[in-house]
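[Q] Does anyone have a clean structure-token version of this?
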Amino acid sequence: MDDTSCEDFSPNRLIREFLCERVLVFKELAALRDEGWANPSGDDYFKQQRKRADEAGLKEQRWFFHMMQQIGDEMENATGFLSQLVCEKDPPKVLDLCIAPGGFSAIIRQRLPTAEIGGISLPHSKGGHKLLFGHSDPRIRILFTDITMHSSEMGATSIPPNHPEAAAFIQSRPYLSEAFDLAICDGQVLRNHPRQSY
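[A] Here you go.
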């Protein structure tokens, strides 16, 4: 039984059990969720969704890029987070981790034309998204690297020599010496990013 059931034994079992006993709506939603997960047509639907995401053509990539721009605009309109970065002396500095396809940074450049942007993106050759915004401006510096392999950023200063990927770990800490006014971190491990099974 999967972890959506009220009777499962996952780490969240006690909370689900508590809610199922006391909140009728939660119990009904948990039952509907179980029903959905048990439906083979749901598997087919998500398989198609994954295929579309993994094999996205330029049209789908642009749609995703524009969706991220729209989200950035909505966040700015709701909170004014970019307006608050306007400095009288220095241009705002932004760090965009997992920058591709670049929708958030495109909005930053649109709203804050003098902003300096540092970014990190998984190379396209390793399964990363393509960058879809003009990044030839010298105020935009993008490092194409696998952020998950920068071990020293995670506090690991020595890698055991017998580790399966010992040679692949990177000890450098990009952008360590810089200060940023805003950091964006919206990445996730992609299915088409080759990963070791360990």
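[Q] Thanks! Anything notable?
[A] The two ends are 25 Å apart (CA to CA).
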